[in-house]
Amino acid sequence: MKIGIVYHQFISQGGLEKYLVGFVRALVGKGHDVEVVTSRADEATRACGAGVLVLPGGRVKTASDFEAFDQASWDEVRRLGMDTVFGFGRTTRQDVHRAGGGCHKVYSRSLSGRRKFTRKNKVELGLEEALYSGGGTERFIVNAAKVKAEIEAEYGVASDKIEVVRTPVDTVNFAPDADGAVRERLRQFMGTAPGRKVLLYVGREHRRKGLQSLLDAAAKLDAEVWIAGPKPKLLTYLTSSGTVRYLGERSDMADIYRAADWFVHPTLYDACANTVLQSMAVGLPGIISVNDGASELVEDGKSGILLHDPEDKKLLTAKLEEALGMEASDRDAMGLAAREAMMPLTWKRHLKGWGV
């Protein structure tokens, strides 16, 4: 089958982008003829086995760029004569669209006041309205039941036009530390005292992901907080504190998960964060906000701890205390259950959900 893939940046950085690279490789591995239409590609993505057509005009960054890419990509995929076209971003016309980032209308409510009223946000909302109400797309795929419910509620899309297809997880790379050697090595390197608990936070948009709430809650507890991702602007007292450590952006995230005791994800909004799935696959239990669709895969008290209001700092502190006070054997059992929940999420199952 000739399959067109449309997304404005086909690069090997970022959660959705990394998913897209894996998706294209899986399609090529099944023998499909894949052509990616984008505005930006890198060396790694060009080597994934698909044709890559970079449209003129450069990177898509502004509101006008998104509008132009929507039109130009549609013109190009029609010219190429694909059997089917899959869209992944702010495009309004394709055969199947995957809302990997969730419902933008709901997500935008978590933005700071200034960002809500930018032209870029208004254009993105307009493109999403056209996507779900304009009739240019036949079928929609989402990665969580909560996203399906949001799209139905916000745009009136019929339930039978939206299918939940869970994100696949690399359970080979993200696997438990069998003998504890990786955990011990990293904790020694970080200067973490033997027996001290480590809370791990991973994220890029720190305000939305709830980092400040975590730092405020953890300040009263006897535990370290490790932060992986871009450097937060709120790193004011961190350099002088022995309880908070900034790890930077890491290429060894599987090892970082293995070295921690708990993954903490107090997000205000996520469709289905890859970090939650990866940490669970490693066997790292988490305290996971119900505002993330990944929480649908967490059985509260068995494969993780659910956080029902990430903005309630007293509640977050109580959940952290519950986690830190748990017996090691109970924590390990929770981690094992978390990994078992990830095992069915294979690429084979994922492609079947797409019908390819």
Can you put this structure into words, describing what you see?
This protein is α/β, with parallel strands linked by helices and 356 residues long. The protein has 2 domains: 2-165, Glycogen Phosphorylase B (Rossmann fold, 3-Layer(aba) Sandwich), CATH 3.40.50; 181-342, Rossmann fold (3-Layer(aba) Sandwich), CATH 3.40.50. The chain is 40% helix and 17% strand. It is built from 15 helices and 13 strands. It has helices at 15-29, 43-46, 63-80, 104-107, 113-116, 119-133, 145-155, 181-190, 206-209, 211-218, 253-259, 274-282, 313-324, 328-342, 347-354, and strands at residues 2-6, 33-38, 51-54, 84-87, 94-98, 137-142, 162-164, 198-202, 224-228, 244-248, 262-265, 286-289, 305-307. Strands 3-2-1-4-5-6-7 form a 7-stranded parallel sheet, sandwiched between helices. Strands 10-9-8-11-12-13 form a 6-stranded parallel sheet, sandwiched between helices. Strand 11 (262-265), helix 12 (274-282) and strand 12 (286-289) form a beta-alpha-beta unit. The radius of gyration is 21 Å and the shape is globular. The model has no long low-confidence stretch (mean pLDDT 93).
